[in-house]
Amino acid sequence: MNARKSIGEIFGFFFFLGRRTGKTRVFALLGLIPVALAVVVRIVLHGRSGDIAAVFTEILMVFFLQFYIVILSLFYGTSVVAEEIEGRTLSYLITRPLPKPAIVLGKYAAYALLMFLMVAVSLTPSYFIMNAARLAEPSLYLTFLGYLGVLGLGILAYTAFFTFLGAVLKRGILVGLVFGFGWENVIQYFPGSTQKFSIVHYLKSLLPYRPAGGGGGRLALLLFKLEPTAPAVAVLMLAVIAGVLLALACWFFRTKEYLYEE
Amino acid sequence: MTAVIAATNLSKWYGNVLGLNDVSLEIESGITGLLGPNGAGKSTFMKLITGQLKPNIGTVAVRGRKVWNNPALFAGIGFCPEHDVFYEDMTGFEFITGLLRFYGYSASDIKERAVRALDIVELTKDKDRLIRGYSRGMRQRVKFAQAIAHDPEIVILDEPLSGLDPLGKRKLIKLIKDFKSEGRTVLVSSHVLPEIEALTSRIVLLHQGKILAQGDIPYIRELIEAHPHMISVRSSDPRALAARFVGDPAIQKMTFGADGRTLVVETHSRDAFFGRLTGAVLEGGVEVEEISSPDDNLQAVFEYLVGK
Predict the structure, then answer these.
(1) Rg of chain A's alpha carbons, rounded to an integer?
(2) Entry pTM
(3) Tell me, what's the ipTM?
(4) Are B71 and A100 inside 8 Å of each other by CB?
(5) Which segments of B183-306 are extended strands (E)?
């Protein structure tokens, strides 16, 4: 079987399996939080469209961009390899006529799509509930697709990073936790080029979001100091991050021996 | 005959722990039993020949082709892992069909093979139940089914009988024997001697990562020169029979059985003893009702070899 078909079959297997797991149910439920929030905001801020838009931007930045896609990618990305080791099911995969990189790529793709669907299912109602007054505006839909695209790119880049960690480290999830909720949260507020050593910087560069009021206040620098990268470069950087880390994950998975803990 | 599986000076260690030590072995078609206590290196050997581990020293080849990172080889190999692990959120049927997809079969072929494999292991009725709800016996059988569903030429079974009740064991032993009768190569490991004995007489004894002996049971028995053969002869007059062998240099020791009708002889030269016994019978005056070798079984051989 060629590599493409192998990836496709692995994708099918794990996309099917992924939908069944308890982990997916829990994370799908987590995705209902912004939907519930959207309903509440819509009721409380009824008629104040400017305020609603600002609240949605905060939900997008804080919940989706800096929490939901990070935690999803962390758990699914590290599990691409690690759950096979911890569950000792790796033997079922590597004793098949499949190139080892196809296992990583197929499973990565399956989980990335699964996460994207969870994000879409969460984002779509919350966005349209909050913007219900503007449903006739075509720009509303374009903005929505833009948000979805950015979150999709975020999933691809973060999941590639966490897949790499899971392939290399025994406890990749711990390092991933520090990276996802430590490094990523701190480094993006550093001025100059330092912030470019984070994935979230490139994702934020693709969003139309800017701090309300354009700064001011003594804490503004700490709260948000984005020096955006050009959108085309940001997309390219995210693609390079995902591509390189996935290639490395595949290489490690192909060459490394994985031992079950006795 | 060309070896199906060949290991040459194979060594594998985990940090400071030696898993396998300079093992050279050739496995031909038919059933070969890999026997040894826990930690003997059986699973390490099986993981090496299924490409799950990479040798530190030496080589391992299946049909002359290297194993590590050679996925094409696995189209003809079925592996049943030791651990009781599955994708628990799948049904038995989904598990088998899911894994069959990795061989490039058409959808109808996958279904047909899965149905056949589940039928062989008598799980047709339960095929649509989640694996997490299966009994231990059913889990072992579905594990065996995934190893044979693609009709492999070589099947490697790591402790397949572990945890099964006697009936389950008997069923699985029959399945393995049936599978072998189709001219395939089966390598099966166990730390339980009667299990291997029930499956095959061709065995490889592993202990502390080394091969202690290999061959069929009588052959291995011949290798143990330090230990005399024990032969039990039931006769109407065992004392008269014993009198014929007094002073015979081939005999080390003679004792009488508790039933008063059995003479138990220990000898280093089984052939010489049988020759003399035949002579004594032919000369007359001695009747022999039954001859058996109480220590000509795997338990005895294994205990001798590991020096218990």
Answers:
(1) 20
(2) 0.86
(3) 0.87
(4) yes
(5) 185-190, 202-207, 210-216, 229-235, 251-256, 262-267, 288-292
